[in-house]
Amino acid sequence: MRIHPLPPPKPATGLGKLPVARWFVAIGVVTAVAFVMGSVLIMMLVADVRAQRPLPRVAAQLDRLNVALIVLLVVLTVAGLGLVFIVRFAVLKPIAQLTDQVRKVAAGDFDHELSVERPAELAELSSHVDSMRRRVVTAWRRAEDQADELRRSNGELEQFAYVASHDLQEPLRKVASFTQMLEQRYGDRLDDRAKEYIRYAVDGAKRMQLLINDLLDFSRVGRVTGERVTTDTGAALSTALDNLSAAIEDTGTVVTRDDMPKVVGNRGQLTQLFQNLIENAVKFRSDLPPRVHIGVKRAGEMWEFSCADNGIGVEAKYADRIFLIFQRLHARDVYPGTGIGLALCRKIVEYHGGQLWLDNEAGEADEQGATFRWTLPAAGDEDDD
Questions:
Q1: Where are the beta strands (DSSP E) in 250-346?
Q2: 175 is a domain residue
Q3: What's the rounded Cα separation, in Å, for the pair 339 and 326?
Q4: In a domain, 138, yes or no
Q5: So what's the pLDDT on residue 383?
Q6: Which residues, at least 6 apart from 212, have a Cβ–Cβ distance to it below 8 Å?
Q7: Same domain, 238 and 357
Q8: Where is the HAMP domain (predicted)?
Q9: How confident is the model at residue 326 (pLDDT cuts 50, 70, 90)?
Q10: Do 205 and 305 reside in the same domain of the chain?
């Protein structure tokens, strides 16, 4: 099995740039030079002593010293050659073998086994590394199987989305339209209860259409038109306000805003994010004149946005529940909707690599209203000011 190669290793620094073989050679050369220089110095001293015509006993000892130096030189030479052989075949060659095997694995050939027989330490190390390689391969294959299953599941979801957007919408439209025609044509023959049943049927069909559309929007996040580029959030906010202009005008809502920055995101999805949050602020208004403020501040590599209102607010114990799909805190006849709006907002923000949360501290400080905060990645050309 071949997969994408691993990133290149970090280059060595300082003395670590010198390979271990050269370290052995350097140390061996220094040791040999030191021994030879010492031997030459001793022989020169012996020659000087001989020039002084020493006693026969001293001369005999000097001869023995010369023989000992020669024997020592031969022994050290043999030992040095033996050490070179041992280091070469018992250390350097196994290290080179293990390095070559690891390079093949790092290049993408994860089926290549790692095996070094000597020395014991390198054999143990290669065994552990090979065990990690097998676990990585097993996890990778499992992830590939799961990815294939996920792709198949996504394909089925896309097929369901197509069916929901076409095959389910048409029957609902027929139910609503023909029920309304039934009331128009035979309204004079129906009593009040029958007319009420017809209104229930029409309202149910319309709510089902709205629910299907919201579910489609929720499933499309990250799949359809999900390209993320440098986007002006000010333009996205302006589009959202234009879409909500009728509701804002009817309720007398005052919307204020900071200067909006550029982020890395999808224009359509960010417009939907602003629109859903502002629409919620208008919907869940209190008796006070509605006010909504869209703020923003820099937070490291992210921009932190906020949507603050003076509405009825959200209790702290529901801070997580409100972001779950189909979760409602109020009856449908009081505040209409499908319960998908905030779940959709969180999915959009998380798809962009940010987070969305309810700021409980802001709500407690103001004693009324709700403040939602979310983060989005700043565009690369943004200033840090």
A1: 254-257, 262-265, 291-299, 302-309
A2: yes
A3: 4
A4: no
A5: 46
A6: 164, 165, 168, 169, 172
A7: yes
A8: 89-141
A9: low
A10: no
Tell me the C-alpha distance between 8 and 318, whole Å: 48
Task: Indicate whether 336 pLDDT > 80.
Answer: no
pLDDT digit string (tens) for 95-137? 888 888 888 887 777 788 888 887 787 788 888 888 888 888 8
For residues 200-218, one letter each, b for 16 or more C-beta atoms within 10 angstroms of the residue's C-beta and e for the rest, the string is ebbeebeebbebbebbbbb
Kindly state whether residues 291 and 318 are assigned to the same domain: yes
Q: Which two tokens stand for residue 142?
A: 């499992």
Pairwise CA distance, residues 344 & 221, whole Å: 8
> Could you list the residue range(s) of the whole structural domain that residue 250 is in?
229-377
In the block, which residue shows the tokens 């390095």?
Answer: 99
Whether residue 37 is predicted with pLDDT greater than 80 in this model: the reply is: yes
Q: Are residues 233 and 373 in the same domain?
A: yes
Which among 114, 106, 111, 34 is positioned nearest to 73, based on CA atoms?
34
Domain boundary among the residues 95, 112, 129 is at 112
Distance between CA atoms of residues 35 and 244, nearest Å: 92
